[in-house]
């Protein structure tokens, strides 16, 4: 990706010049902080200008941080974008091999449910929503760019290229957060989760309920994390959490992408309503958003999106979506 314009800072908490005297690092609740000789406590992450960011002060009598009240920030919970009306572009030949059953794109309403998370991540990065760099490594027909742009996120990288080849050659784009609906055939979910953990970036992946029952999921994330027993796991820790819709998500196959659907074969009977802007509707799996790599400070800003349950651990997933 080419060089972009300077990324503007979104005001968060007061930024300060480096104080005189020594600054020491310390850990509280599993997170690193900095403290100066006066007891002022700073985030371990500097702002976009390289300045320290004050988060509170040290109370020696309680041996704890007294956090400053954060600036009020409105985090939209839904995108409220109008339904797409422009016919989707004809599918272009893919530059990589793919199974036809994997040719499905995410429904627009599923993106509504992660708008709040994306705004919180942009705020944490110190950028506006339209400057947040979003990466979807799996290409189908480019709907992710159209749907996220309609919700105010215009910096989305999703190209007709082989993710695994780009990964192996070191040609991946720079990004702030990964948002994707991967192919569900083996071994794509496992390879995606391996990448998500290795990249050390926030990630949101729309995947079926059966993914969290697989051995590879439990080896990627410890049982202690998944059960919510990790210290501070409700909104802290490193375990993934889940955004679960109360109404089952549909998927959309771009018209012309699947030969067996276009030709009126057996699969066409399982694909229902057709929409010129989205394609042919199907709903093969119960699915929800798996979310990880997100700091506790961002998690504290989150609340359940309209029409969703926010499950902080696998044990707290609603019974209706758990794989039987």
How would you explain this protein's 3D organization?
The structure is a single chain. The protein is α+β, with helices and mostly antiparallel strands. 19% of the residues lie in helices and 22% in strands. The strands form 3 sheets. The chain has a 7-stranded mixed β-sheet, with helices on both faces.
Give structural attributes.
9 helices; elongated; disordered N terminus
How do you describe this structure in short?
With 324 residues, the protein is α+β, with helices and mostly antiparallel strands.
State mean pLDDT (0 to 100 scale). Answer: 81
Q: What is the molecular shape?
A: elongated
Percent of residues in helices comes to 10-25%
Q: Provide the low-confidence segments as ranges.
A: 1-16, 69-75, 229-237, 260-264, 266-271
From the N-terminal CA to the C-terminal CA, the straight-line distance is 43 Å
Strand content: 15-25%
Main-sheet strand order equals 9-8-10-11-16-12-17
Structural class: alpha+beta
Q: Count of DSSP E strands?
A: 17
Number of helical runs?
9
Cα Rg: 21 Å
GO molecular function: methyltransferase activity; nucleic acid binding
GO biological process, one term: methylation
InterPro entries: DNA_methylase_N6_adenine_CS
Protein name: Site-specific DNA-methyltransferase (adenine-specific)
Give the SSE map.
Layout: E1 15-16, E2 23-28, E3 31-36, E4 40-43, E5 52-59, E6 64-67, E7 105-106, H1 108-112, H2 115-125, E8 134-135, H3 143-149, E9 156-157, H4 163-169, E10 177-180, H5 188-199, E11 203-208, H6 215-220, H7 223-226, E12 241-245, E13 251-253, H8 259-262, E14 274-275, E15 279-282, E16 287-292, H9 296-299, E17 308-311
Parallel strand pairs: 8-9, 8-10, 10-11
Antiparallel strand pairs: 1-5, 2-3, 3-4, 4-5, 5-6, 7-13, 11-16, 12-16, 12-17, 13-15, 14-15
